[in-house]
Specification:
Layout (H helix, E strand, L loop, with lengths): L14 E12 L2 E12 L3 E6 L5 H8 L7 E6 L2 E2 L5 H8 L2 E4 L11 H12 L4 H14 L15 H12 L6 E5 L7 H18 L2 E5 L3 H7 L2 E6 L4 E5 L2 H7 L3 H7 L1 H9 L2
Helix pairs in contact: 3-4, 3-5, 4-5, 6-7
Length: 267
């Protein structure tokens, strides 16, 4: 499997998020335990693993929607759950989230979807908020679509509009939950290219939940692999390095699925 990407951060880059001894659970049911990893500033960090391993649950912990059963999540040295409520909310406003569906309000135009958080959390006038929304749409290749409704554009365009809304408040951190889900290969590739462009041009730290091998190798320069059987992480690092150097058969099998499929189908 060929890789064309280059590392986007230096190994000694400043840590942005530190996860220490994290246990995720719903009541007495443990999803994952003993998670320890660091997300560096400017990383495109991949959360990967098989179905049911807790990828989306980890994302919810990272964006502050789920409190750890045990352990700590620190942002630039500050323990999220030890901050007072106002500081936690302030930290969360520095995050942008793109959900699987795009989660756009169907009754609002694309511009209205994006101006909503701008008007809620800034002092900009309505015209300034509209101008900023147009700028965010232009960043994701949707200039001229301000007055379209979500139902009037394609699935790939909806994902890009959702990304524009996630970027509305100039977040330091962007979180993506299966961004390529439901997209055709061409649209998925365009979204991957956009993620890389945003990382390189804005220096944003990006965390992506995905099981798509093409995206993992195209955009990721750091990652964690969650195992559903042992209920803990079994690998951490650049996906390309893990592909070539991991001695764990589970990791190798996951990262070579595409090669196996190509051999089976004769492609």
């Amino acid at each position: 499997m060929q890789q064309n990407k280059v590392s986007l951060t230096h190994p000694a880059a400043e840590s942005h998020i530190e996860v220490t001894d994290l246990t995720m659970a719903y009541g007495d049911f443990v999803i994952q335990s003993d998670l320890n990893f660091t997300i560096r500033r400017g990383d495109i960090f991949i959360i990967m693993g098989g179905s049911g391993c807790g990828k989306s649950t980890l994302l919810r912990h990272l964006i502050g929607l789920k409190k750890p059963a045990q352990g700590d999540i620190r942002y630039e040295g500050d323990s999220f759950w030890k901050l007072d409520v106002s500081k936690r909310q302030g930290l969360m406003r520095r995050m942008g989230v793109l959900y699987q569906s795009g989660a756009l309000w169907t009754s609002m135009t694309l511009a209205e979807n994006i101006t909503l958080p701008i008007e809620a959390y800034t002092d900009l006038s309505a015209s300034q908020a509209r101008e900023l929304a147009s700028f965010k749409l232009s960043l994701v290749g949707l200039k001229g679509f301000e007055d379209y409704y979500p139902a009037e554009i394609s699935g790939g365009m909806q994902k890009r509009a959702g990304l524009a809304r996630a970027m509305a408040l100039d977040p330091e951190l962007l979180f993506f939950d299966e961004p390529s889900a439901g997209l055709d290969p061409v649209s998925a590739k365009r979204l991957d290219d956009l993620i890389i462009e945003l990382s390189e041009s804005l220096g944003t730290t990006i965390v992506v939940v995905t099981h798509e091998l093409a995206s993992i190798f195209a955009i990721g320069n750091n990652s964690v692999f969650l195992d559903p059987e042992s209920k803990t992480m079994i690998a951490h690092g650049d996906p390309g390095d893990l592909l070539h150097n991991s001695s764990d058969a589970r990791v190798h099998e996951f990262l070579t699925r595409g090669d196996t499929l190509s051999q089976t189908t004769g492609n």
